[in-house]
Amino acid sequence: MSTQSRKIYEFGPFHLDLTDHLLSRNGKLVPLTPKAFEVLVCLLERRGHLVEKDRMMQAVWADSFVEEGNVSRTVWMLRNALGDDRNGHKYIKTVPKLGYRFVADVRVTERESSISDLENLEPEPTIKIPVEYSTSDELLDVKRDHGPSVDLNFSPVGGLGNGHPVLQESVSPNLIWRRYRISVLFIISILAITVALVLIAFLRRSGTSADSNKSIEALSLKNNSPRNGQAKDAYLRGLSFCSEAHNSKTSSEADLRYKSGLESLELAVGLEQSWAEAQGELADCYIWQAASDASYYPKAQAAALTAIKLDDSSVKAHHAMGFALWRADWDRAGAEREFDRAVELNENGKFGLPGYALFLSSDGRSEEAIRAMEQASSIDPYNYVTRQNLGFTYLRARQYNSAIEKFETAIEIYPKQYLAQIGLGETLACAGRYDEAIAVTQKAIENSADPMPKTDDRMKALRLAWIYAKFGHRKEAVKILDEVKQLPEPPPGSINVIHFAMVYAELGDKDNAFAWLRKAFDSHSQTLVWLKMSPEFERLHGDTRYVEMLERLGLRP
After folding, report:
1. pLDDT digits (tens, 9 = 90+) for 101-151
2. Contact status, residue 76 vs residue 85, Cβ threshold 8 Å
3. Could you read off the pLDDT of 36-45 as tens digits, one per residue?
4. Burial class (CB in 10 A: 0-12, 13-18, 19+), 22
5. Which of 26, 47, 302, 534 is the most buried (most CB within 10 A)?
6. What is the DSSP letter of 417?
7. pLDDT tens digits for range 424-439
8. Who's near 342: CB < 8 A, 6+ residues apart?
9. Close Cβ partners of 204 (under 8 Å, ≥ 6 residues apart)
10. Per CATH, domain 3-123 is 2.30.29.170
């Protein structure tokens, strides 16, 4: 039996074989992309020392042109594979603005091993690479390294049914059995549909009423079995676009993908109006878009209501309805009923419920909110919106250190996302870290556009004015306020109205703060749902006008 010398790195439960490019955990293979493996080796070779981002790019991506964001995303994927993101970065530590350091204890050995040693490892049959976290070069590297048995297919990744390109490799009899089982299930589904159609034809011949026919047709569509191939294609395209929107690098890119996803899902339900699952997905996608553009809420409610009528067990439909009742109607009691129903139906934890987490956070139910948002983030780890909302959930809980960590992680993955940077600046200010808060907020204002509709980018300076006011720099805050007031007044529904209110509140000018808040109420601004827990309005607590406003939102002080 042939043997060869192998260089082995061991850390925690992990075992990295440099010779065969293999990483295992407790004897079980851990799938990594080639670039992620190279990054890990680069860190291990300089363990305990700083590895600058430039040096890492030269070592790993020397043959291709990539942005610095590729390094951040690859490190993030690597942390996920190591379980590092859930355990306080005990393996890979970020050195802000510079690079990374491998901080765990590492044992390096040279050993003789036979080919049979590899046969004792239990393989992981699927390597999943969401397209937003890889380059075309990386995909080609995997194809080249793993040979012709690798296929690039679109398959759902994560608990929300998100469609991403996935690389799949046939490496074990178990995988062969799974594929065989899928074929069998497909045949059974075809037979079930055939039986349903035969039954419909029989009932029609026997004089059964039209209502009964519609009920049977609806039943055949309850479990993702559309009869119209065009509807199914549109549905899958819609899921893919909406999934990509969650992972977009910029807000404008996300907006375009959401709209493409909605167009496809609207086509699907237009062709198959009794397809409950498609109606639920459409309601869910409307909600993601409505969070920044309230005009989508009526459509979300209509789609959710249709889905619930067709199938009351739709988790996404109840979740979407709850979110719309909360944000658009300020009906907290009705929203809680819908959210409770979604939680009840989701007892196995298949779906993340980030909207429910935000609902809890808005009322100060912080422990429940954090638990729900952490679960949503773990189920759909590639969703940047959930990532940054996790930071805001910790911020509203006044857990500033955790909030800072979550925002920094989100920014590391998506450095151009404005709201995560603003959230980090706000959290640093609340934590008393004045210079850092100013620097982060100034960078966000200069380099990123405000993604909210009806906004004037020149009014982003109000974010900075609030920080100046918080630290007693009244002159600087008032100067910004006076400059922004020379601009056209923000239109109804603009978040800039809220920004004026928060600066006046921090300056102690309550009359002007409430005057601007009344304008927000007049336009039914959905941002008002954060009035109770937002740090920007702490100075208004106890004022009778503040209490009255909370009551209008269905909240208690």
Report:
1. 999 999 998 876 555 554 555 554 444 444 443 443 444 344 334 433 333
2. yes
3. 899 999 999 9
4. middle
5. 534
6. -
7. 999 999 999 999 999 9
8. 315, 316, 318, 319, 322, 353, 356
9. 213
10. no
